[in-house]
Design a protein that fits this description.
Its EC number is 4.1.3.34. By secondary structure, the protein is an alpha/beta fold. The protein contains twelve helices and ten strands. Helix 2 runs parallel beside helix 3. The structure holds ligand LIB3CWND and magnesium ion.
């Protein structure tokens, strides 16, 4: 399957005209237009109209998602109808706590005529959502599936549970790791939570490194100042690319043709390490492709 770069997914409030415009020229791998918490109740309809215009204009070929309001809200039907009409790459669903929500929304998108390319992204940001993460992720193996990705929502998790994340998010670590594990067991992508303190560059960089170490594909963002650090943390470095190329060349050298385990720069490599190296190269190519496309557009 093609690798999709999701190092940086920038939330943009659909009610903020200037931010919608600005997002078009930024270097995030993707844009999530938000109709939910970043939009005040009194301006939901106007925000939906702006979201429609922005999605129709597009974001230079980069991945776009529309975060809709939850199914138990008065705005859900109109939000979902918009998603079916404009067909973003994904519909991000907040506060998913049950696999049935994914099935129901996939079925509704089918009945509204949304093309199959419109995927579902589930925000895992409630206690029940974390507990049910495996069951929610498992819907990805069902025939009518549209689910591709999880995003952790640490703000809502903290609100509901009363947890204080603390230094290096120590209190959240078991939940973050169980969400990553559930996603991977079903072959889903998984994106780390936003970092609210957007003027704190050092804190943000540290949290990106931690998220990368935990296995996240990228980070959800709230401010343009966070894009470069997320892209750096979750993308392959020039050294990693060179090493991946050298590893693949070593493993496929004629003298190693009959070997399952090969020595490379003083350590053992096997087919699985070559697969990781190939993924690094595929990610690097995919990053170059989407950003070349953006610059051309
Ligand atoms: C956090 C903000 C409210 C800060 O706004 P502000 O103080 O106005 O920022 P700046 O003055 O520093 O902005 C500088 C320029 O950048 C543009 N900008 C700011 N944010 C964005 C953005 N997200 N996308 C695109 N462009 C942006 C400004 O327009 C300025 O442009 P210019 O005029 O050229 O100078 C604000 O950043 C913001 O609203 N961020 C997004 C908030 C959001 O979407 N929240 C919802 C997602 S987070 C979430 O839901 C968490 C999750 O669910 C959970 O539970 O954890
Ligand atoms: Mg939330």
């Amino acid at each position: 399957m093609a690798v999709k770069p999701r190092r940086s997914l920038l939330f943009v409030p659909a009610s903020n005209t200037r931010a919608l415009e600005k997002a078009r020229g930024l270097s995030s791998d993707g844009v999530i237009i938000d109709l939910e918490d970043a939009v005040a109740p009194g301006v939901k309809d106007a925000a939906r109209a702006q979201a429609e215009q922005a999605l129709r204009q597009g974001f230079g070929g980069r991945e776009t998602a529309l975060r809709i309001n939850a199914p138990d809200t008065q705005w859900f039907e109109a939000d979902l109808a918009l998603a079916a009409r404009v067909a973003p790459d994904a519909v991000a669903i907040p506060k998913v706590y049950s696999p049935q929500t994914i099935r129901d929304i996939a079925a509704r998108l089918d009945s509204l005529g949304a093309p199959a390319k419109v995927r579902l992204w589930a925000m895992i940001e409630t206690a029940r959502g974390v507990l049910n993460a495996d069951a929610i992720a498992s819907t990805a193996s069902e025939p009518a599936n549209r689910l591709d990705l999880f995003i952790v929502g640490a703000n809502d998790l903290a609100r509901e549970t009363g947890v204080r994340p603390g230094p290096a998010r120590a209190s959240l670590i078991p939940w973050l790791q169980s969400v990553v594990l559930a996603a991977r067991a079903s072959g889903l992508a998984v994106i780390d939570s936003v970092y609210n303190d957007f003027r704190n560059a050092d804190g943000f960089a540290a949290e990106c490194t931690q998220g990368r170490d935990f296995g996240f594909d990228g980070k959800s963002l709230i401010h343009p100042a966070q894009i470069d650090a997320a892209n750096a943390a979750f993308g392959p470095t020039a050294e990693e690319i060179a090493e991946a190329q050298a590893m693949i060349a070593t493993f496929s050298a004629p003298e190693n043709a009959s070997k399952g385990a090969v020595a490379f720069e003083g350590r053992m490599i096997e087919e699985l390490h070559v697969a990781i190296a190939q993924r690094t190269l595929d990610l690097a190519h995919a990053i170059a492709a989407i950003h070349d496309n953006k610059n051309a557009g």
